[in-house]
Write a sequence for this structure.
């Protein structure tokens, strides 16, 4: 018998292969039903209530083993579905006209192309460029641009409010404001071509940002001095999270006007823009005073 | 140099090494966007066949961005260890792949030749590897670094607590941080991405976090991920700062778009060495991600994987404590879906480790990419199995400021339990002392954020 065979046989003997199979173990006793199926609802813990005064982050939610309670899983899945819905949304035909804005479009032709081809979203199509050159005011201080970006939902909800707040705040500071435009399938850098075409000192694009969980109503603003094709992100100043739970549009509009003024005064933007002396003013514009608790919207309710 | 191969009697020829590198790359929407991807799967294999027969010397002599045009290429050349390079220069990329996979090739051997590798060599061999190849080699790499605790030891998986808030509400940041700590997260860093990029705000957040860490005697590091110039000003204000952060890109032009250069990072490093508050010797923190160079039109026709490797070449100049790829953050125009994001996460982790970095990964997706939550959870386990140094952690994985889905406070203990991993030794001892863990399993205070008291 080979050495290997001997070893295998010895191992089987050790495992009891030669003995009859032991009788099956009796079934384990069925435990009492659990007292609680789910842990407490996350709104219930004192920590969750305290945290909710400051943040919409899902805190104090407890755990089952190392994982989530079923209720948390369902809430999460519902919020994920809402975010995906916001990405899929598109600006309705006539949105610009209905809001009194000059209608522009990038070189993108359909929604999937918009997601995969940012290069096309950074340039105007020929027709839009012509319309802009013929119909928009030139040589202004600030060119405001409203755009869909990655959430047409946000653009539709609070875009016009932000645009109006921004325009008014610029005018209060004595800045001239260009013809407000609205761009479809737009990426941030589209502001370069638009601002260049109308010879604006500052180009400011206000657009829907990547949706968050359960949201899709956030706007971002990107400002650039002396806009021209070829500007980079380092040339821009930006502000994000413009929505009711972050910075409200009225406050954001004011702060963006402060930024615009600083760019024109210093003749630059981006990393070389010095905001040190404006901390007080920007701090006021970006007011961080206490906001009312913003409970996360409860998305899943089950009839029982 | 012949750059041609034949598959089923069809001959494929390539103009230069850059074209071979691009077409050998696994499918990525970003390479399609750049117009440099292989036409189809057969051309991709033809390019890989050519690549497998190039020597590492030939890869070195054909950098992704020319020496004359790019300060990173020049820096890689100047910083390269010639002794280490001499040991591997004759290997073809295919042979190098096999050498890495050999059972006898351990971390000591890999570490000895690593300083002789240019980033392009790491990218080249990466293109010839499957996902499991990437994991197998990466799992051998044990990059150990130290700040206030010791990261990267065998059997360890660390995490960053990322308590971001849309208006930098310090109370909100601290509530989230305390919850994360109670799940055993945060041994890599407590790292906040600020919404407001000012020195005052950076200093305010760091000071508040520092007070809680000190009060509770938590052995970890803090960081606010504002622009490096903002952090330099914050240091001058006199605030505590354990780690200094910056996003990196893989070309001089890409870094210009980020507002940085090698000279600026050298200056930042020197200032941090003098004024940083961590015990050290490692104190820099970098983030990267495939596609950043193309997004600022600074890719020079090179593929995004190769440019990503060059970020790691830049990072290693500063012996960082943390480096992570934010793999799914940039969006579907660069990494379209679950398979592409999964692959890229494993590639980046592999290349970073091969180049000697304490590599972590922000396994994540944005809500406009085609990746499911289930696919994302799988990636976290794959990274853990590959020996990834750290993952991120947030409440339910939801970043309410940056709007994307990452790793959750619950995922970290789950992956650790699945793979038999623990936090860094210093932090693990703190978890045991506070009753958050009982040995390897959750203890009586697990998930109870009141275990961490306010300052």
């Amino acid at each position: 018998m080979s050495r290997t065979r001997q070893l295998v046989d010895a191992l089987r003997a050790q495992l009891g292969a030669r003995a009859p199979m032991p009788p099956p173990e009796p079934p384990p006793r069925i435990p009492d039903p659990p007292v609680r199926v789910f842990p407490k609802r996350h709104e219930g813990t004192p920590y969750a209530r305290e945290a909710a005064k400051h943040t919409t982050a899902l805190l104090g939610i407890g755990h089952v083993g190392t994982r989530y309670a079923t209720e948390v899983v369902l809430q999460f899945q519902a919020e994920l579905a809402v975010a995906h819905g916001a990405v899929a949304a598109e600006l309705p035909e006539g949105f610009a006209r209905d809001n009194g804005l000059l209608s522009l479009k990038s070189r993108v032709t359909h929604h999937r192309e918009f997601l995969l081809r940012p290069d096309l979203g950074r340039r105007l199509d020929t027709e839009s460029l012509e319309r802009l050159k013929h119909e928009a005011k030139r040589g202004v201080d600030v060119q405001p641009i409203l755009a869909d970006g990655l959430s047409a939902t946000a653009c539709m909800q609070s875009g016009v409010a932000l645009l109006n707040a921004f325009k008014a705040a610029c005018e209060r500071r004595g800045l001239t404001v260009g013809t407000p435009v609205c761009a479809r399938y737009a990426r941030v850098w589209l502001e370069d071509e638009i601002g260049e075409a109308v010879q604006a000192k500052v180009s400011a694009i206000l657009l829907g940002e990547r949706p968050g969980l359960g949201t899709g109503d956030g706007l971002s603003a990107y400002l650039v001095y002396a806009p021209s094709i070829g500007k980079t992100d380092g040339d821009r100043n930006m502000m994000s999270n413009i929505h009711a739970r972050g910075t409200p549009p009225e406050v954001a509009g004011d702060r963006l006007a402060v930024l615009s003024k600083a760019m024109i005064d210093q003749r630059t933007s981006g990393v070389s823009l010095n905001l040190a002396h404006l901390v007080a003013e920007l701090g006021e514009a970006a007011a961080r005073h206490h906001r009312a608790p913003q409970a996360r919207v409860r998305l899943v309710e089950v009839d029982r | 140099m012949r750059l041609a191969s034949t598959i089923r009697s069809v001959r494929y020829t390539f103009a230069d090494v850059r074209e071979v590198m691009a077409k050998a790359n696994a499918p990525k929407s970003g390479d399609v966007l750049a117009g440099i991807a292989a036409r189809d799967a057969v051309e991709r294999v033809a390019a890989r066949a050519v690549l497998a027969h190039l020597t590492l010397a030939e890869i070195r002599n054909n950098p992704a961005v020319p020496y004359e045009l790019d300060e990173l290429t020049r820096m890689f050349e100047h910083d390269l260890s010639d002794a280490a390079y001499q040991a591997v220069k004759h290997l073809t990329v295919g042979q190098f792949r096999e050498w890495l996979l050999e059972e006898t090739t351990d971390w000591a051997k890999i570490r000895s030749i690593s300083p002789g590798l240019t980033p392009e060599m790491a990218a080249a061999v990466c293109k010839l590897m499957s996902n499991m190849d990437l994991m197998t080699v990466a799992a051998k790499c044990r990059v150990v670094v130290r700040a206030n605790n010791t990261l990267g030891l065998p059997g360890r998986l660390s995490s960053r607590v990322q308590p971001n808030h849309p208006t930098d509400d310090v109370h909100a940041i601290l509530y989230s941080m305390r919850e994360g700590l109670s799940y055993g997260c945060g041994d890599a860093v407590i790292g906040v991405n600020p919404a407001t990029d000012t020195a005052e705000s950076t200093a305010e957040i760091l000071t508040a976090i520092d007070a809680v860490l000190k009060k509770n005697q938590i052995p970890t590091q803090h960081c606010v991920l504002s622009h490096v110039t903002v952090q330099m000003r914050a240091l001058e204000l006199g605030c505590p700062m354990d780690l200094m952060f910056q996003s990196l890109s893989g070309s001089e032009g890409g870094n210009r778009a980020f507002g940085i250069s090698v000279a600026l990072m050298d200056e930042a490093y020197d200032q941090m060495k003098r004024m940083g508050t961590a015990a050290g010797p490692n104190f820099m923190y970098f983030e990267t991600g495939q596609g950043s160079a193309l997004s600022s039109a600074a890719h020079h026709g090179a593929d995004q994987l190769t440019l990503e490797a060059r970020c790691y070449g830049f990072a290693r100049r500063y012996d960082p404590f943390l480096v992570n790829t934010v793999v799914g953050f940039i969006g579907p125009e660069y990494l379209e879906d679950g398979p592409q994001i999964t692959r890229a996460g494993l590639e980046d982790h592999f290349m970073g480790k091969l180049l000697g970095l304490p590599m972590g990964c922000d396994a994540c997706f944005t809500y406009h990419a085609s990746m499911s939550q289930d696919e994302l959870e799988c990636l976290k386990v794959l990274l853990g199995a590959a020996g990834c140094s750290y993952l991120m952690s947030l409440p339910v994985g939801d970043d309410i400021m940056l709007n994307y889905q990452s790793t959750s406070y619950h995922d970290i203990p789950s992956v650790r339990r699945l793979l038999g991993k623990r936090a860094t030794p210093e932090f693990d001892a703190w978890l045991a002392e506070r009753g958050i863990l009982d040995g390897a399993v959750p203890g009586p205070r697990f998930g109870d954020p009141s275990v961490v008291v306010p300052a």
